[in-house]
């Protein structure tokens, strides 16, 4: 049955003339298995080519016409003899080339290191999976970002914070002795898109994960992942020296605390020799941190960095800081706390910044920290799990959202200073670079809670490898590998996916509105909700609607958050004449009859957009219904059922939001809008 377990690695048979052409070029496989990474590379090629071509090519030692030769100059004498230029490919890069080898037409997949050859093997398989020619290949690829990491918000009791795909896939209870086969499939899927790190536990961390019992379990996972080039990281609770170390303080300047972390790091590296490092959420949403002792984020990060440095580990220190006190504007806090610390972090610290300054909203302007800390490597944090975008049932492809952020221009060093260039280190010349994605993976058979949410995992990995890829081309690859290579099917589904995020913005938070979700669950609409533990979660905090108007004034007459951007950006966003309409109410408070670009007054435009979002979902349902013959019935039925849920809920978002805002504005409903019965 098609249950989605295979993700984009389905390897179903290629048919027709294309299959014959592939078989000509794949007559045998020359690949070693002396090292673990070589062994998994060979196994993947045998599995993939076997599935795609109907039979795995025979293994061979010598070149022949149609040989596929995989390896490094070290592992493969044939590759060494070719004298290929591999210098600039680094550790993870590879080349795939059609060559003449000992007089035979062959294909080489070559790299400096075994892991590069594994990435190359997945790329080669992808060419076949997506129906490309493999005749005259000359591919050179190296990742633009060094650390490409998943963040699991998984608790030790199996619950996944903001997880919508079942329980955690880590079976802590049965680890380390039982290594579920699924762990290797997880590693295969991640390696296929270049992910090379995984933080196993929630940022709201339990210190217990740093105790010997859990380190043994984490080490077992690291053993499974190692051949696939994936390192294990852990979220560290800042107060761990107190909770599991018996100390009275976690003050970063206390010598005993420093010794405790040094010893802890040594212990970890004895258990997991290639441990990646720590991810830390500190002094945010009630988590402990250095500020509890009057110290800075830099003091805290450097404490852990010094402990990890002798072993080559990295600290990923999060800039998502929300204090409990009522802020004049939550959007400003990270910049205010971190910019003054630029240059004070150790070399093995990265500051991990969410894409926007509020919290993974359907649309946010890029975070003002990007470009504003030239002396600190900044890591991107995207959220793959759709906490604010309808969980697993709403079909929302996130590629366009991430692309929008990565291509945004910070103007930090003049025009063209895109967020992508901050992240890949080229803007400020950093060699330590990284991207994190909050995973949407759980124990559901299909891993992500829905078939289409697999695309978000896939897109994240591809963008972490190359932040300048287009989200459309990524979607196209994914559809071909996941569903079908039929060109018209692909075009239809890709179009549907590409508009899906804008549709969610429309029915949830149009025109720059944000954080109108029900507090705590963040699923349905709740612009009226106060409550929740935090004082900023009052009914009007984010949208500031009154009888006179709506929107959060972040210009000089309001919170002036806009001043955190580089001057050209601040001018653009801060001026009603130039602010992109999608950010209108993010930066400005305007009257209900404000004239929008369509000519409609704001109130009418809001209603128009809510309705447009619902209509788009209705359209997706129809489109999908029309594809019933092109998708296996199992997956077709589930997607169809989820789209029906999405339509119902999009309508609820629209009607509830309009009713609520109408109660404030007192305006009549625009003509043509039919209120719910
Ligand atoms: C959001 C999310 C929390 C999470 C937090 C974070 O606020 O709702 O569940 O802990 O982000 O990123 O730390």
Automatic annotation (TrEMBL):
SUPFAM superfamilies: (Trans)glycosidases (SSF51445), beta-N-acetylhexosaminidase-like domain (SSF55545). One of its GO terms (molecular function) is hydrolase activity. Keywords: Carbohydrate metabolism, Glycosidase, Hydrolase, Polysaccharide degradation, Signal, Xylan degradation. Its EC number is 3.2.1.131. Residues 449-673 form the Glycosyl hydrolase family 67 C-terminal domain. Residues 128-447 form the Glycosyl hydrolase family 67 catalytic domain. It comes from the Bacteria. It catalyses: Hydrolysis of (1->2)-alpha-D-(4-O-methyl)glucuronosyl links in the main chain of hardwood xylans. The keyword tRNA-binding does not apply. It is an enzyme of class 3 (hydrolase). Residues 7-124 form the Alpha glucuronidase N-terminal domain. Homodimer. Belongs to the glycosyl hydrolase 67 family. This is Xylan alpha-1,2-glucuronidase. The lineage of its organism: Bacteria, Pseudomonadati, Pseudomonadota, Gammaproteobacteria, Lysobacterales.
